[in-house]
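Example record

One chain of 170 residues, shown exactly as stored in the release files.
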Amino acid sequence: MDRAQKEQLVDELGQIFESSGVVVVSHYVGLTVAEMQDLRKRARDAGGAVRVAKNRLAKIALEGKPCASISDLLTGMTVLTFSEDPVAAAKVAQGFAKDNDKFVILGGAMGENALDVAGVEAVSKMPSRDELIATIAGMLGAPASNIAGAIGAPASNIASILSTIEDKAA
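Predicted structure tokens for this chain:
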């Protein structure tokens, strides 16, 4: 890798660190290519990505970035899982770690906040952005459906009373 390629990689990593809602750092010693492809697919499906980069270049890219606190975690064979959604990458990493003992989460960062292993697990249990939007949309629609039910209820009550009177008359 020549100097120009290294500079380009540092720029790419810098953009990743700046634009990501969450970055999770993990060790991946002993993972097969198929397992790594599975991790990449899971991350892609969740709207995130996985990146393996030299620790030295990643530390250079971290300088001056909000998540610079993770530079201490960059030792050994590390892989970065990241996403713009502040929860997606943590969910993917946590789920993959449960399925694979060779994948060990070291920590991460959510903006300027450093996360330890417990912090990454806590973030992974939070609802994603899409789940929150769906919940809010459901809450906004609930009052309208309650009003429609309340308006329709007297008519159905009258219909059932009339039906009962008709049955008694017959």
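Notes: The chain has a mean pLDDT of 85.
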